[in-house]
């Protein structure tokens, strides 16, 4: 199957609202010309600005400035793989309005004052495919979706325990007991808000791409600090890890056709019509050919973790639903990830077989209690797109972090320099501090988020 | 919903083959009269005999006899919860025939000789519900299914790496490379065989129960040692743990409506007709009533790990697909487990809503490399039905194991005594060596399997 698997088409139907349509770069990003992002004390809209594809590098103006919050530091590099930069990033302060119950919708704004904000921080990486459009839309939209979802449940978040009824009024005296027995905590509302925000953003991207006649999709990796906790939500093959002096902890899992094989095969088992008779649901070690017919070959079906043998029939010679391994594994011969945003119109080349039913926009969310962790000066979270992890393992990145930070304690830009150094390590440069790993030919984006003092001064109830 | 949720009925169709129909006990097992099992050097059929419901206690005859293999020791107790003992067990030697390629089916037996057996050991616990019939059938059948499934792949198991084609003849020179790249190992064939054996056994139980006009289901927990590895396959809420001097390791996960909520809700989302308009797919902290209408209440849907709020509509007042928490959680108001064997005819009381589409017979399989583990004298696996784990945690059981074994090093029956002691600990007896935990009112079955020397002399290639 060709790599050119996107077909532009217009679906019937009236025009959809398209605020802030994506504006792809007029010219390609120069090879290895890094675009630096550094957060600053900001309203959420700054996250929009800093990640707009036409935003200028903002590194110099804020160099050395005391930042009112530990913004984290990003470096993004375009590997000339595509005409436009398919990696996009966003970061900023997340301000969640609180409003009182019973206040009319149009009066809601009047009740605001600075003390009524619940604030957190937000970092996001989006790795686009089939063009940068979905990644740009996601970088412009997801934090707004998240803020909206959090505002819808904020009263539950600030209570000792989320009330069964959002009004806070018990319908039955036993209601708090049921909530406690189910073990529902404030953090479950943030997890739920992240899950809903990804879904909402996916719908927005679908509408906006359709309205503007564009196509594409992207992975999404988001970190949020709120009320002393760090939330990492992931849909795709980016990765976040926690690096401490004597610990490397994964904060996300990758979602690829291989890691989600059973879910994807299960869907094809329940709805065989999704494969339109063109694909086989079964997994084999390689694609079967005519001379395999009648042989007993290794196979796996949806309910199996292990392998068994089956007698090859004609239908087994079809192209496999998931084919290839490692970086070459593809869903329906088309896509290397199994979760992400966008791709609403993506079909298998020259067929009507849609990818979307197999693709999920739902993230997996990990929660890290920062109060319990008691982060030290050099504890960081490293978030990066697959361009980094293709050539460096989590342990290799941790070694680079640990070898870099202690020698640069006085440098106010050390986290930014660390992000740069990690990217340079993937480029096979002469000045690279290490020759670990291989050379990456993919776009690479890295956030380094220092955790020390991250929880302080970030939230006001 | 009543506990009397079984309806006997006969499905249309001709008679099905029913070898060895289950023979339920004619009289109930006396309260707290334990039935002891002790394995012996045996052909696989001994496992049948030792677990037949009419088998007599076999403890005394083998006391003190040197066993040719570490059989493990079981104790089963009937808690008078049901008229017949719904807990059943099986254990024995697993002998897998090897036959040569190209030998005709009817000549296959002629090629056998003792050296052509691959041998392992097998332990299984089945916790029945709705009567003992399914558990008895499973104890009589599953090891035969497993032997058959292993024999179908044994040539792949004894190769350095399973060949892509079972004939061993490469169709293409690159075949071994594909198998290696997929990381397929001999142990994956055993995992696949266990998965297929559970499915096959489930089909046998379905046919035999239908043919004999009986009903019911059971959980299944199986441990197998083969080629230096321990495999634990679990479908239900029994549990196996590894207890070492300084480690307690879970070897299984429990499958209940709560732990499998997302899979079950997902199926109802894809096939809403399975609920026949009688149930709501959504989870709430408690069942909603009329006075919740219009309120915003906490809820979770299939795609959510976290919680959110929704405005209550009329359809949310239906009975929840999964209701209650902990031991009280029920699938469709009927069943406390979400995986197991049998239950083919089980319907929600007074409806045509079937449980089976939501129930899986597929086990989760854990593999423990015993060669790598280098088991010490007092390293054991404890397998038990939920009656034990309802009142003792894994850590409490590990403490009891560690406090019991060192003081009884000279006792040749110490593992058997340990199994008894663990059960007594759940019965609130005066002579119980500990007052940890609470009293169990459920059937309780325990296997204690010493791991030391378990891999030796068990397999001949």
From TrEMBL, chains A, B:
Protein's name according to its UniProt entry: Protein phosphatase 1M isoform X1
Highest taxon above the source species: Eukaryota
Pfam families: PP2C
Pro residues bias spans: 14-27
InterPro entries named in the record: PP2C, PPM-type-like_dom_sf, PPM-type_phosphatase-like_dom
Any one GO cellular component localisation term in the record: mitochondrion
Disordered, as annotated region: 12-62
Domain PPM-type phosphatase: 100-451
Organism in which the protein naturally occurs: Tursiops truncatus (Atlantic bottle-nosed dolphin)
Gene name as annotated: PPM1M
Molecular function via GO: [pyruvate dehydrogenase (acetyl-transferring)]-phosphatase activity
């Amino acid at each position: 199957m060709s790599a050119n698997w996107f077909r532009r088409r217009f679906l019937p139907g009236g025009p959809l609202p398209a605020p802030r349509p994506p504006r792809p770069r007029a010219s390609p990003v120069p090879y290895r010309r890094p675009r630096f992002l550094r957060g600053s004390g900001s309203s959420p809209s700054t996250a929009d600005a800093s990640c707009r594809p036409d935003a200028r590098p903002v590194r110099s103006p804020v160099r050395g400035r005391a930042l009112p919050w530990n913004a984290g530091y990003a470096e993004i590099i375009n590997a000339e793989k595509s005409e436009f930069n398919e990696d996009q990033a966003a970061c900023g302060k997340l301000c969640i309005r609180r409003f009182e119950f019973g206040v009319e919708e149009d009066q809601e704004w009047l009740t605001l004052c600075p003390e009524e904000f619940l604030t957190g921080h937000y970092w996001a990486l989006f790795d686009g495919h089939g063009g940068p459009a979905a990644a740009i839309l996601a970088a412009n939209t997801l934090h707004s979706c998240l803020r909206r979802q959090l505002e819808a449940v904020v009263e539950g978040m600030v209570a000792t325990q989320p009330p069964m009824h959002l009004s806070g009024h018990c319908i039955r005296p036993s209601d708090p007991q049921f909530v406690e027995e189910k073990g529902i905590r404030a953090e479950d509302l943030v997890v739920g808000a992240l899950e809903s925000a990804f879904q909402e953003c996916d719908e927005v991207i679908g509408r906006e791409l359709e309205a503007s006649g564009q196509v594409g999709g992207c992975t999404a990796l988001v970190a949020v600090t709120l009320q002393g906790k760090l939330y990492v939500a992931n849909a795709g093959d980016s990765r976040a890890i926690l690096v401490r002096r004597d610990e490397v902890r994964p904060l996300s899992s990758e979602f690829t056709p291989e890691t989600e094989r059973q879910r994807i095969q299960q869907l094809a088992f329940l709805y065989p019509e999704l494969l339109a008779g063109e694909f086989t649901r079964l997994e084999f070690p390689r694609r079967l050919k005519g001379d395999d017919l009648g042989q007993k070959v290794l196979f796996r079906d949806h309910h199996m973790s292990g392998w068994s043998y089956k007698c090859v029939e004609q239908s087994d010679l079809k192209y496999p639903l998931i084919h290839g391994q490692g970086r070459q594994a593809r869903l329906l011969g088309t896509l290397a990830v199994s979760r992400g945003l966008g791709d609403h119109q993506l079909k298998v080349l020259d067929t009507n077989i849609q990818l979307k039913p197999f693709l999920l926009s739902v993230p997996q969310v990990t929660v890290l209690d920062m109060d319990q962790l008691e982060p030290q000066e050099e504890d960081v979270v490293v978030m990066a797109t697959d361009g980094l992890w293709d050539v460096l393992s989590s342990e290799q990145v941790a070694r680079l972090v640990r070898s870099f930070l202690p020698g640069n304690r006085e440098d106010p830009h050390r986290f930014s320099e660390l992000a740069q150094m990690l990217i340079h390590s993937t480029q096979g440069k002469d000045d690279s501090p290490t020759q670990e790993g291989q050379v990456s030919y993919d776009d690479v984006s890295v956030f380094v988020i220092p955790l020390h003092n991250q929880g302080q001064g970030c939230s006001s109830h």
